[in-house]
């Protein structure tokens, strides 16, 4: 985001205790980031989080995606007031005027080290050079020809180009140790026109063009106006009390959980194993929604209290790690639907919702290359048919991810959130005692019934996995560049599901996903009221608000999966043509 987006709650931007901070230039900040400093902009102040990173309850990756950027909206959306006050301690300077975002290092941004005096004046010259270099590098991927509007001049500079994702793709391949045939495509000697990667780049440009036609221009002036209105909306939401949690609504939830748990135990006692497993599955399905609320501090808004609620439900009753979920989900909320950064759409070799994943991207979350290998080729070709089958096994996959997270100790190892890991491990022991030993081993006495119980209870939770993926899988995965504002990015990558209020319990708040992405800490039971305000905001700023019925939403997702499967087939054709041509070239050479 660019622009002097001082928050309307400007109190925070005034140094407390009369402390004043030196003004830092963009160039100075760039040099510090080049030296490895973790710096972001918040309310016109420069915040240096180096010392804080390893204590951060939101994880290190969440902060890294904000380095060099104005993080005001992301930070305000995701933090409690206390956390925002803490950040004052990490201020090292302030900025004047408009801030032009850098592409963060984790996303492949390049930063120039400190050079001598007089550097400042050469800034513009440098930008122009970069722009030229950029245009040469990405000749086929320049956004300017993809845009029907006139893109802002900043669009062509190195750190602001929406094509940056394309460069990441190339990096991913170059750094990959993959011997897959794809990497040879990047080889300079490969024939260009039939190049499979060139085909993917064409698709990327098309997707970009569609988004540029459909959404407000990502130029700083337009985005500043959107941000301004988004902040006003946020103030209004606070004023209307939409952050106040309705505890009665949770009393209703809890009675539903109690009923389901009671039915599960009763059926178990009567040895109606299938029915018992069914009710347990329903209970897990429902509990996930409250874990989601707790994980976002959306219940009491107190980080410790809500996290402990989350651990008690997710780990003790569900056998899943909320720590894993938080680390994953926090990143997802910041760079939603980015093929190389958002773990929620990184399901290779099973699913690809963006053609770009066919280019063996490197995941900055998992820190490895998501290979489009032989297995992936088979699976992706069938993904639109296998989607529901895969979703059936969603919960088993979550055990794997949870244990990996807890064993590797990926969560914050220091500070106020470090002890959560031990509570979670205790929760895992508790879960396997009651579920594994108590039910499966003691209460049930044949292996056939044990297997049946596990399968039924786990498969009944399938809808939740469909619900989670539904809100993003069919939405844009294009990168509109560093100037795009937080609210526009959220609304461009997320959709809501239309349902009557009596079905709200079934969707558990996930049906208001776009509203939730704009304001993640709003309690679930207030989202329906907030939706109305968000709709007004969207009309006002001209951002389309994506709302589909549940069935239509599913169709959109299947349509997207089929689309990428089709692109995979075209890519394979390009490559076989290319290989044939390559062989012909070789034989010519020999003769
Ligand atoms: C010096 C800078 C920062 C400090 C002191 C800080 C502090 C905190 C604290 C205390 C929490 C616990 C939840 C709360 O009380 O609100 C938290 C959570 C979080 N932070 Fe930060 N943070 C910083 C920078 C950032 C940045 C730049 C981002 C990126 C947008 C970020 C993203 C998050 C996320 C996603 C959570 C998780 C919220 C949750 O679990 O519900 N933080 N942070």
Characterization of this structure:
- Among the domains are: 98 residues, Flavocytochrome B2, Chain A, domain 1 (Roll), CATH 3.10.120; 314 residues, no CATH class.
- Helix content is 56%, strand content 4%.
- The protein is built from 25 helices and seven strands.
- The termini are far apart.
- About 14% of the residues have low confidence.
Descriptive keywords:
591 residues; mainly alpha; 3-stranded antiparallel sheet; 56% helix; 4% strand; globular; binds protoporphyrin IX containing FE
Short description:
The chain is mainly alpha-helical and 591 residues long. It is 56% helix and 4% strand. It starts with 25 loop residues before the first helix and ends with a helix.
The oligomeric status of these chains comes to: single chain
Number of E strands: 7
First and last CA, distance: 58 Å
Biggest beta-sheet profile:
3 strands, antiparallel
Which helices and strands, and how do they pair?
Elements: H1 26-34, E1 39-42, E2 45-48, H2 60-64, H3 72-78, H4 81-87, E3 91-94, H5 123-137, H6 143-146, H7 164-175, H8 181-185, H9 196-214, H10 220-239, H11 247-269, H12 273-295, H13 303-317, H14 322-334, E4 362-363, E5 368-369, H15 374-381, H16 383-392, H17 394-408, H18 420-443, H19 447-459, H20 462-473, H21 486-493, E6 496-498, H22 504-507, H23 513-518, H24 527-541, E7 547-549, H25 550-590
Parallel strand pairs: 6-7
Antiparallel strand pairs: 1-2, 2-3, 4-5
Helix pairs in contact: 9-25, 10-24, 11-12, 12-13, 12-19, 13-18, 14-17, 16-25, 20-25
Bound molecules: protoporphyrin IX containing FE.
The site of protoporphyrin IX containing FE has 27 residues, from helix 2, helix 3, helix 4 and helix 14.
């Amino acid at each position: 985001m660019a622009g002097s987006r001082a928050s309307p709650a400007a109190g925070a931007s005034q140094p407390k205790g009369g402390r004043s901070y030196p003004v830092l230039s963009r160039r100075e900040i760039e040099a510090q980031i080049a030296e490895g400093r973790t710096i972001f902009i918040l309310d016109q102040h420069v915040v240096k989080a180096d010392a804080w990173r390893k204590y951060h309850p939101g994880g290190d990756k969440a902060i890294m995606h904000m380095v060099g950027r104005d993080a005001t909206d992301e930070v305000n959306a995701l933090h409690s007031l206390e956390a925002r006050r803490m950040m004052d301690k990490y201020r090292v300077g302030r900025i004047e005027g408009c801030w032009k975002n850098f592409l963060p290092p984790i996303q492949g941004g390049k930063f120039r080290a400190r050079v001598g005096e007089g550097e400042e004046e050469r800034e513009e010259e440098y930008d122009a050079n970069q722009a030229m270099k950029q245009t040469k590098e990405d000749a086929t991927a320049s956004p300017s020809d993809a845009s029907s509007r006139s893109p802002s001049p900043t669009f062509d500079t190195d750190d602001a180009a929406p094509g940056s994702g394309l460069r990441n793709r190339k990096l991913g391949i170059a750094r990959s140790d993959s011997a897959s045939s794809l990497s040879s495509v990047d080889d300079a000697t490969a024939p260009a026109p039939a190049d499979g990667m060139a085909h993917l780049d064409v698709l990327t440009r098309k997707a970009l063009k569609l988004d540029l036609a459909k959404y407000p221009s990502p130029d700083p002036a337009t985005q500043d106006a959107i941000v301004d209105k988004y902040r006003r909306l946020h103030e209004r939401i606070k004023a209307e009390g939409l952050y106040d949690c309705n505890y009665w609504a949770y009393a209703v939830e809890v009675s539903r959980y109690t009923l389901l748990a009671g039915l599960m135990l009763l059926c178990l006692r009567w040895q109606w194993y299938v029915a018992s497993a069914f009710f347990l599955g329903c209970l897990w399905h429902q509990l996930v929604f409250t874990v989601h609320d707790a994980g976002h501090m959306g219940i009491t808004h107190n980080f410790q209290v809500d996290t402990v609620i989350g651990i008690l439900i997710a780990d003790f009753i569900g056998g899943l790690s909320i720590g894993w979920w938080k680390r994953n989900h926090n990143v997802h909320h910041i760079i939603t639907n980015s093929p190389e950064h958002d773990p929620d759409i990184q399901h290779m070799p099973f699913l690809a919702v963006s053609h770009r994943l066919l280019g063996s991207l490197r995941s900055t979350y998992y820190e490895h290359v998501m290979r489009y290998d032989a297995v992936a080729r088979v699976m992706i070709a069938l993904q639109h048919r296998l989607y529901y089958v895969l979703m059936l096994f969603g919960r088993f996959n979550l055990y794997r991810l949870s244990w990996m997270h807890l064993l590797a100790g990926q969560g914050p190892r220091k500070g106020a959130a470090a002890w959560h890991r031990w509570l979670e491990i205790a929760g895992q022991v508790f879960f396997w005692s009651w579920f594994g030993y108590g039910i499966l081993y003691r209460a049930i006495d044949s292996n056939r019934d044990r297997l049946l119980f596990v399968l039924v209870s786990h498969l009944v939770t399938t809808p939740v996995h469909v619900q989670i993926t539904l809100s993003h899988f069919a939405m844009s995965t294009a990168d509109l560049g560093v100037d795009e504002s937080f609210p526009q990015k959220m609304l461009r990558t997320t959709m809501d599901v239309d349902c009557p209020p009596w079905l709200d319990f079934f969707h558990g708040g996930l049906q208001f996903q776009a509203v939730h992405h704009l304001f993640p800490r709003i309690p679930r039971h207030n989202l329906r009221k907030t939706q109305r305000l968000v709709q007004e905001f969207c009309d006002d700023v001209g951002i389309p608000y994506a709302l589909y019925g549940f069935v239509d939403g599913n169709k959109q997702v299947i349509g997207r999966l089929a689309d990428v499967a089709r692109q995979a087939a075209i890519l394979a054709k390009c490559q076989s043509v290319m290989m044939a041509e390559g062989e012909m070239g070789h034989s010519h050479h020999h003769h």
